[in-house]
Amino acid sequence: MRLDKFLKVSRLIKRRTVAKEISDQGRIAINGTTAKASSDVKVGDELAIRFGQKMVKVRINELKETTRKEDAEGMYSVISEESIKTAE
């Protein structure tokens, strides 16, 4: 499954276009490698996503083409969530 589609279906990012923009900016890594929106993800991969001042690491548990809001969180598990300090 494409990275941008996974992010949308899992509801980590609300819109696919936003997921594409973020990945094109180099703010997403799959297993430590910077990823593009078209990168393939599979079960067991670890994603590191930078949201502004926050870094979130998740592990992919399952892939689905569509999902209901209640089931979306089961597609991934959060490994860590940390604030990023900015240099002043």
From TrEMBL:
Domain RNA-binding S4: 1-64
UniProt entry tagged with the keyword Ion transport: no
Keywords of the record: Protein biosynthesis, RNA-binding, rRNA-binding, tRNA-binding
InterPro entries, sorted: RqcP (IPR025490), S4_RNA-bd (IPR002942), S4_RNA-bd_sf (IPR036986)
A molecular-function term among this protein's GO annotations: rRNA binding
Gene3D superfamilies: RNA-binding S4 domain
Pfam families: S4
GO biological process: rescue of stalled ribosome
Keyword RNA-binding in record: yes
Entries under SMART domains matching the protein: S4
Subunit structure: Associates with stalled 50S ribosomal subunits. Binds to RqcH, 23S rRNA and the P-site tRNA. Does not require RqcH for association with 50S subunits.
Similarity section: Belongs to the RqcP family.
Protein purpose: Key component of the ribosome quality control system (RQC), a ribosome-associated complex that mediates the extraction of incompletely synthesized nascent chains from stalled ribosomes and their subsequent degradation. RqcH recruits Ala-charged tRNA, and with RqcP directs the elongation of stalled nascent chains on 50S ribosomal subunits, leading to non-templated C-terminal alanine extensions (Ala tail). The Ala tail promotes nascent chain degradation. RqcP is associated with the translocation-like movement of the peptidyl-tRNA from the A-site into the P-site.
Protein name listed in UniProt: RQC P-site tRNA stabilizing factor
Protein species of origin: Fictibacillus aquaticus
